[in-house]
Write a structure and sequence with these properties.
CATH superfamily: Jelly Rolls
Mean pLDDT: 96
Number of helices: 0
Helix content: under 10%
Radius of gyration: 17 Å
CATH topology: Jelly Rolls
Shape: globular
Distance between the termini: 25 Å
Low-confidence stretches: none
Order of helices and strands: EEEEEEEEEEEEEEEEEEEEEE
Number of domains: 1
Strand order of the largest sheet: 1-20-17-22-15-13-14
Structural class: mainly beta
Largest sheet: 7 strands, mixed
Amino acid sequence: MKTKIQRSSERGHVNFSWLNTYHSFSFGQWYEPLKMHFGALRVLNDDEIGAGQGFGTHPHDNMEIVTIPLSGAIAHKDSTGTDGIINTGDVQIMSAGTGIRHSEFNASKTKPLHLFQLWVIPKLQNIQPRYAQKTFDVADRKNKWQVVVSPDEKDGGVWINQDSVFSLTHAEKDTTITYKNKFNGNGVYLLVINGEVEVDGESLKEKDAVEISDVDTFEIMAKGDAELLAVEVPMLTIED
Protein backbone atom coordinates (compact mmCIF):
# COMPACT_ATOMS: atom_id res chain seq x y z
CA MET A 1 0.00 0.00 0.00
CA LYS A 2 1.42 3.31 -1.13
CA THR A 3 0.12 6.51 0.47
CA LYS A 4 0.80 10.22 0.14
CA ILE A 5 -0.90 12.66 2.49
CA GLN A 6 -2.00 16.14 1.51
CA ARG A 7 -2.87 18.33 4.47
CA SER A 8 -5.62 20.90 4.13
CA SER A 9 -3.08 23.68 4.67
CA GLU A 10 -1.02 22.47 1.69
CA ARG A 11 -3.76 23.19 -0.83
CA GLY A 12 -3.61 26.17 -3.10
CA HIS A 13 -5.76 29.09 -1.93
CA VAL A 14 -7.17 32.07 -3.82
CA ASN A 15 -9.66 34.51 -2.28
CA PHE A 16 -11.52 36.88 -4.57
CA SER A 17 -14.27 39.19 -3.36
CA TRP A 18 -16.93 36.68 -4.42
CA LEU A 19 -15.03 33.36 -4.45
CA ASN A 20 -12.97 31.72 -1.72
CA THR A 21 -11.41 28.62 -3.27
CA TYR A 22 -8.94 25.89 -2.33
CA HIS A 23 -7.20 23.76 -4.98
CA SER A 24 -5.94 20.23 -4.32
CA PHE A 25 -4.17 20.30 -7.70
CA SER A 26 -2.69 23.09 -9.82
CA PHE A 27 -5.49 25.28 -11.16
CA GLY A 28 -5.90 28.81 -12.43
CA GLN A 29 -3.56 31.22 -10.67
CA TRP A 30 -2.09 28.51 -8.44
CA TYR A 31 0.60 26.36 -10.02
CA GLU A 32 2.51 23.65 -8.17
CA PRO A 33 4.41 21.27 -10.48
CA LEU A 34 4.37 18.48 -7.87
CA LYS A 35 0.57 18.68 -7.56
CA MET A 36 -0.73 18.38 -11.11
CA HIS A 37 -3.00 15.35 -10.76
CA PHE A 38 -3.60 12.00 -9.11
CA GLY A 39 -4.00 9.49 -11.90
CA ALA A 40 -7.00 10.58 -13.97
CA LEU A 41 -8.13 13.06 -11.28
CA ARG A 42 -6.99 16.44 -12.58
CA VAL A 43 -8.96 18.98 -10.47
CA LEU A 44 -10.52 19.05 -7.01
CA ASN A 45 -11.67 22.53 -6.08
CA ASP A 46 -13.32 23.41 -2.77
CA ASP A 47 -15.33 26.55 -3.58
CA GLU A 48 -17.27 28.98 -1.42
CA ILE A 49 -19.29 31.31 -3.67
CA GLY A 50 -20.95 34.49 -2.46
CA ALA A 51 -24.69 35.11 -2.65
CA GLY A 52 -25.84 35.70 -6.21
CA GLN A 53 -22.31 35.29 -7.57
CA GLY A 54 -20.78 32.70 -9.88
CA PHE A 55 -19.06 31.77 -13.10
CA GLY A 56 -20.35 33.27 -16.34
CA THR A 57 -20.67 31.24 -19.53
CA HIS A 58 -17.37 29.52 -20.37
CA PRO A 59 -16.25 26.51 -22.46
CA HIS A 60 -14.90 23.03 -21.67
CA ASP A 61 -13.99 20.03 -23.80
CA ASN A 62 -12.83 16.45 -23.22
CA MET A 63 -13.23 16.48 -19.46
CA GLU A 64 -15.62 14.76 -17.01
CA ILE A 65 -16.78 17.50 -14.62
CA VAL A 66 -18.48 16.49 -11.37
CA THR A 67 -20.13 19.00 -9.02
CA ILE A 68 -21.14 18.12 -5.45
CA PRO A 69 -22.92 20.88 -3.45
CA LEU A 70 -22.11 20.71 0.26
CA SER A 71 -24.47 23.52 1.27
CA GLY A 72 -26.67 25.78 -0.81
CA ALA A 73 -27.77 25.38 -4.42
CA ILE A 74 -26.31 26.04 -7.87
CA ALA A 75 -28.15 27.57 -10.81
CA HIS A 76 -26.76 25.82 -13.87
CA LYS A 77 -27.26 26.45 -17.58
CA ASP A 78 -25.43 24.88 -20.52
CA SER A 79 -25.36 24.46 -24.27
CA THR A 80 -27.04 21.03 -24.12
CA GLY A 81 -30.25 22.88 -23.23
CA THR A 82 -30.07 22.14 -19.51
CA ASP A 83 -31.30 24.94 -17.25
CA GLY A 84 -31.92 24.03 -13.63
CA ILE A 85 -30.94 23.93 -9.97
CA ILE A 86 -28.44 21.57 -8.32
CA ASN A 87 -29.34 21.26 -4.63
CA THR A 88 -27.45 19.93 -1.65
CA GLY A 89 -27.82 16.14 -1.83
CA ASP A 90 -27.57 16.20 -5.62
CA VAL A 91 -24.57 15.18 -7.73
CA GLN A 92 -24.15 16.58 -11.24
CA ILE A 93 -21.86 15.50 -14.06
CA MET A 94 -21.08 16.96 -17.46
CA SER A 95 -19.19 15.03 -20.11
CA ALA A 96 -17.73 17.96 -22.02
CA GLY A 97 -16.69 15.79 -24.98
CA THR A 98 -16.41 17.70 -28.25
CA GLY A 99 -17.26 20.92 -26.45
CA ILE A 100 -19.79 22.42 -24.06
CA ARG A 101 -20.48 25.91 -22.70
CA HIS A 102 -22.05 26.49 -19.31
CA SER A 103 -22.57 28.91 -16.45
CA GLU A 104 -22.77 28.26 -12.69
CA PHE A 105 -24.16 30.71 -10.14
CA ASN A 106 -25.17 30.65 -6.50
CA ALA A 107 -28.94 30.22 -6.73
CA SER A 108 -29.45 32.23 -3.53
CA LYS A 109 -29.29 36.02 -3.35
CA THR A 110 -28.75 35.93 0.42
CA LYS A 111 -26.81 32.79 1.40
CA PRO A 112 -23.33 31.48 0.46
CA LEU A 113 -22.80 28.33 -1.59
CA HIS A 114 -20.20 25.65 -0.78
CA LEU A 115 -19.31 22.95 -3.28
CA PHE A 116 -16.69 20.55 -4.57
CA GLN A 117 -15.94 20.48 -8.27
CA LEU A 118 -13.79 17.67 -9.66
CA TRP A 119 -12.44 17.09 -13.15
CA VAL A 120 -11.55 13.62 -14.39
CA ILE A 121 -9.69 12.96 -17.64
CA PRO A 122 -12.07 10.94 -19.86
CA LYS A 123 -11.65 7.41 -21.15
CA LEU A 124 -12.91 8.26 -24.66
CA GLN A 125 -12.14 11.55 -26.39
CA ASN A 126 -14.58 13.69 -28.38
CA ILE A 127 -17.82 12.01 -27.31
CA GLN A 128 -21.12 13.84 -27.67
CA PRO A 129 -21.52 16.25 -24.73
CA ARG A 130 -23.96 15.04 -22.10
CA TYR A 131 -25.39 16.09 -18.73
CA ALA A 132 -26.76 14.10 -15.80
CA GLN A 133 -27.95 14.92 -12.30
CA LYS A 134 -29.30 12.78 -9.47
CA THR A 135 -30.57 13.29 -5.92
CA PHE A 136 -29.21 10.93 -3.27
CA ASP A 137 -30.60 10.01 0.15
CA VAL A 138 -27.81 10.87 2.60
CA ALA A 139 -29.22 8.34 5.09
CA ASP A 140 -28.13 5.57 2.70
CA ARG A 141 -24.44 6.35 3.29
CA LYS A 142 -24.40 5.81 7.07
CA ASN A 143 -21.42 3.56 7.88
CA LYS A 144 -21.25 2.38 4.27
CA TRP A 145 -20.22 3.69 0.88
CA GLN A 146 -22.85 5.27 -1.33
CA VAL A 147 -21.77 5.30 -4.98
CA VAL A 148 -22.68 8.62 -6.61
CA VAL A 149 -20.60 8.42 -9.83
CA SER A 150 -19.78 5.27 -11.80
CA PRO A 151 -19.46 3.98 -15.39
CA ASP A 152 -21.75 1.12 -14.35
CA GLU A 153 -25.32 2.38 -14.01
CA LYS A 154 -26.13 -0.65 -11.84
CA ASP A 155 -24.08 0.99 -9.09
CA GLY A 156 -26.75 3.70 -8.80
CA GLY A 157 -24.58 6.72 -9.54
CA VAL A 158 -24.52 9.16 -12.43
CA TRP A 159 -22.63 7.83 -15.46
CA ILE A 160 -19.03 8.86 -16.14
CA ASN A 161 -16.90 8.37 -19.26
CA GLN A 162 -14.04 6.77 -17.32
CA ASP A 163 -13.30 3.71 -15.15
CA SER A 164 -13.78 5.93 -12.12
CA VAL A 165 -16.04 5.70 -9.06
CA PHE A 166 -17.01 8.46 -6.60
CA SER A 167 -18.39 7.33 -3.23
CA LEU A 168 -19.55 9.13 -0.08
CA THR A 169 -19.92 7.86 3.46
CA HIS A 170 -20.90 9.17 6.89
CA ALA A 171 -18.90 7.04 9.31
CA GLU A 172 -19.84 7.10 12.98
CA LYS A 173 -17.19 7.32 15.69
CA ASP A 174 -15.19 4.10 16.23
CA THR A 175 -16.56 2.56 13.03
CA THR A 176 -14.17 0.87 10.59
CA ILE A 177 -15.07 1.31 6.92
CA THR A 178 -13.51 -0.86 4.22
CA TYR A 179 -13.00 0.46 0.70
CA LYS A 180 -12.63 -2.06 -2.13
CA ASN A 181 -11.72 -0.92 -5.63
CA LYS A 182 -14.22 -1.59 -8.40
CA PHE A 183 -11.34 -1.66 -10.90
CA ASN A 184 -8.12 -3.52 -10.09
CA GLY A 185 -5.08 -1.28 -10.23
CA ASN A 186 -6.98 1.96 -9.68
CA GLY A 187 -5.89 4.45 -7.05
CA VAL A 188 -8.14 6.23 -4.55
CA TYR A 189 -8.04 9.88 -3.52
CA LEU A 190 -9.66 9.94 -0.08
CA LEU A 191 -10.80 13.34 1.23
CA VAL A 192 -12.09 14.04 4.73
CA ILE A 193 -15.04 16.41 4.29
CA ASN A 194 -15.31 16.79 8.06
CA GLY A 195 -14.40 14.86 11.18
CA GLU A 196 -11.28 12.78 11.80
CA VAL A 197 -10.19 9.34 10.59
CA GLU A 198 -7.12 7.12 10.61
CA VAL A 199 -5.72 5.45 7.49
CA ASP A 200 -2.62 3.26 7.53
CA GLY A 201 -1.68 4.62 10.95
CA GLU A 202 -1.99 8.29 9.91
CA SER A 203 -4.58 10.69 11.33
CA LEU A 204 -6.54 12.80 8.83
CA LYS A 205 -8.69 15.75 9.83
CA GLU A 206 -11.12 18.05 8.03
CA LYS A 207 -10.10 18.66 4.39
CA ASP A 208 -6.98 16.52 4.72
CA ALA A 209 -6.60 13.94 1.96
CA VAL A 210 -4.54 10.87 1.17
CA GLU A 211 -3.57 9.40 -2.19
CA ILE A 212 -3.76 5.60 -1.99
CA SER A 213 -2.35 3.25 -4.64
CA ASP A 214 -0.81 -0.21 -5.12
CA VAL A 215 -3.66 -1.82 -3.18
CA ASP A 216 -7.24 -2.77 -4.02
CA THR A 217 -8.66 -2.84 -0.48
CA PHE A 218 -7.96 -0.69 2.57
CA GLU A 219 -9.58 0.24 5.87
CA ILE A 220 -10.51 3.59 7.44
CA MET A 221 -11.15 3.99 11.16
CA ALA A 222 -13.38 6.88 12.23
CA LYS A 223 -11.89 8.60 15.30
CA GLY A 224 -15.05 10.70 15.47
CA ASP A 225 -18.12 11.08 13.29
CA ALA A 226 -16.74 11.77 9.80
CA GLU A 227 -17.91 12.43 6.25
CA LEU A 228 -15.63 11.14 3.49
CA LEU A 229 -15.34 11.32 -0.27
CA ALA A 230 -13.48 8.53 -2.10
CA VAL A 231 -12.52 9.15 -5.73
CA GLU A 232 -11.29 5.99 -7.46
CA VAL A 233 -9.44 6.63 -10.72
CA PRO A 234 -7.13 4.87 -13.18
CA MET A 235 -3.49 5.64 -12.45
CA LEU A 236 -2.81 7.39 -15.74
CA THR A 237 0.53 8.96 -16.53
CA ILE A 238 -0.10 12.47 -17.78
CA GLU A 239 2.32 14.81 -19.48
CA ASP A 240 2.26 18.10 -17.57
